Amino acid sequence: MEQIEKLQSEALTKIADCQNNQDLNAVRVEYLGKKGPIQNLMKGMKDLTPDQRPAFGQKVNQLKSQIAKAIEEKREALAKKELQEKIEREKIDITLPGRKPVIANLHPLNLVCQELEDLFIGLGYQVIEGDDIVSDEYCFERANIPKDHPARDMQDSLYIDPNWLLRTHTTAIQMEVLEQSAPHLPIKVVCPGKVYRRDDDDATHSHQFMQMEGLVIGEHVTLSDLKGTLEFMARKLFGQDRQIRFRPSFFPFTEPSVEVDVSCHICNGKGCPTCKGTGWIEILGAGEVHPNVLKMAGYDPDKCSGFAFGVGIERVAMLKYGIDDIRHFYTNDMRFLEPFKRFD
């Protein structure tokens, strides 16, 4: 009987000290296994008298039941403890912000296009896009550039056949808009898109690039209206302190024609490497729409006038974001796009 009480005390102590199921299984095998002390007690019953055996057997069975019950209770306690620890490890703080999905970056050319489109839509312009393949008539002749005109030498074009080519400028879209809108006024459109020229690629030139041309036709539209529009655009793109200046130039579809410079946004007009020490940066060409262009589209140049301008998207993006090589826009290098990550 003393041996039974000793085994009971030892077993219950070991069960209470178990920290995991592996330890608990080891205690179960140690005391309840076929080679354990309880089984040995049962085998020793043959040495007892017939009167002693019933009481002794009852005590051994009670010991076996107590140990088995203690093991099961400990197993349930360990399971609850393990569940609680798992809950603590995996609990979610619902007050934390969720994980945002990865959103693709906007290309800097698209950023500039969107900014310009938003700007001109706010001024009442329409955004008109056209086909990349255009006819020779709308790309050149309607823009006051006949087949024998020397201005065609300024643009080494990519012809598909004698009558069709990849557009060399988005002026082709403007010529179609003029014809389709005649004789209704006013017309206020911007025409963004890719243009193509037979050119050797280097840091500042590409055989494919983007333009956005603007066209305004109405009554008494003057160069002062053009200057105000472009000054507003320059300040929105490069800062509120920007100034612009006109320099005489030549474009077949405008008369008079001007090159437009904006005061350098890096040095604020004092002179730096970006503006080559001049304090000014050339950004676009513009001018009053040529009377011949208006006549071919069905307008009377004595009753209406207008202005046009063409912005190089790559040129603006390079200046705005400090990009030193136009080829970066087309190399598909994800590292180049990283600074332009969206924050929606």
From TrEMBL:
Cofactor info, note text: Binds 2 magnesium ions per tetramer.
Subcellular location, record wording: Cytoplasm
Principal location class: cytoplasm
Sites where the protein binds Mg(2+): 255
Protein name (database record): Phenylalanine--tRNA ligase alpha subunit
Coiled coil: 60-91
Organism field: Faecalicoccus acidiformans
Cofactors (names): Mg(2+)
GO cellular component: cytoplasm
This protein's UniProt keywords: Aminoacyl-tRNA synthetase, ATP-binding, Coiled coil, Cytoplasm, Ligase, Magnesium, Metal-binding, Nucleotide-binding, Protein biosynthesis
Family per record: Belongs to the class-II aminoacyl-tRNA synthetase family. Phe-tRNA synthetase alpha subunit type 1 subfamily.
A GO term for molecular function: magnesium ion binding
Gene3D superfamilies: Bira Bifunctional Protein, Domain 2
